[in-house]
Amino acid sequence: MSTHWLKPYMPRSLYVRAALILVLPVIVLLLVVGIAFLQKHLEDVTSQMTRTVSREVNLVTGVMDETETQQQALAAVRPDLAALDMKVRFLDINEEPEIGRRRWYDFLAPQVESELRARLPDLMAVALPSSQEARLFLSTHLGVLQLSFDRRRLSPAAPHQLIVTMVFFAIIMTSISFFYMRNQLRPITRLAKAAQAFGRGRIVPYAPGGAVEVRAAGNAFLDMRSRIERQMEQRTLMLSGVSHDLRTPLTRLKLGLSMLPEEEAAPLQQDVIEMQSLLDAFLDFSRGVAESAPEEVEPEVFLNQIVDDAKRAGYSAELICAEGQGTVTLRPTAIRRAVENLIGNAVRYGNKADVSLTLNPNSLRIRVEDDGPGIPPEQRTEAVKPFTRLDPARNQNQGSGVGLGLAIVADIARAHGGTLRLAESERLGGLCADIIIGR
Known about the structure:
Helices cover 54% and strands 15% of the residues. By secondary structure, the protein is an alpha+beta fold. Among the domains are: 4-158, Sensor histidine kinase RisS, periplasmic domain (Beta-Lactamase); 290-438, Heat Shock Protein 90 (2-Layer Sandwich). The strands form three sheets. The chain has a five-stranded mixed beta sheet with strand order 6-8-9-11-10. It is rod-shaped and about 150 Å long.
């Protein structure tokens, strides 16, 4: 049987789910035991006790039916009252029955009253004000009769104490279970925070702890983090080394071409420039976020600096909107490189770049829009892959690249635990690139 319909109603937090696993059985047990005890024991015993008292009351009223005055009635039932441990008196003509307020936790009182009314046709009212006394008011041919006797003759004494005791110890045991459960879940929470921080490009101190399974998961996480760090370092060293070693022959080529006639050297100079651009792109891609340490940054001030630098470089860029205040932990050099790449692409394939910022408690969004030809939806997934060029979609006459611009941006966004999303700009009609980073 499928249980997918339960998922929307289940809590997401592991702590809440564990608490539910602890509390739900306790509540069910209390309900089952309480209902079974009330129905199978208390109600049956109360019914038997009430039936006995009803027979005794009928005995007293039966004796009174044979008398003509109240004094004769009281005298006739006096021997029976001593044996039954009851007290009787007749109310005055203008005297009202004193009912009193029933105790709120006396959950057997309704059953007692119902049983008495069913077995005593002349019963006018029942007073159960305390656990010590019960008063019955009956209509007789001599007037209203008040019968008083011990409340414990109608039902078990203090039945609520069992329920209170059960609830009390259930709360105590559940509290102790919560305490130990919190200690067991704390290592899992620490592991989750360390993994989340690493996914966003930060290394936080972490030492495995807790149960054996949690320690095994923590050690596996540390091994994985070390392997990823080594892989990133090796990639950076390899690409940087290759790019650096190729600069020397390129420099020699430039010197050799400078000695040739200008009309012969021009095509070759263009090839050398493209090779130099390719090497620079390799270096940017290899560095990624390696050269930048996480810092607390004010996004609006930071983006204003990037846009001002782009303007000084001759780009038509503008920060058109900045929503939200606060700081975000970012790698400034890496984010600067990503935003500059988006601005460069925007002005290369369009006429201007509009930058906007949205900061809320959950995420940071940096948006760059242009008025260029954009990228078709079916090619956007390919556009963020390394060494992918979409020249038919992005006007090649406006410039050329090596297919690493958007790949670098996507790599930097992923290193911050975020993502790069491409869409069509509703304002300008070109490409809309969003860098979205969780806080």
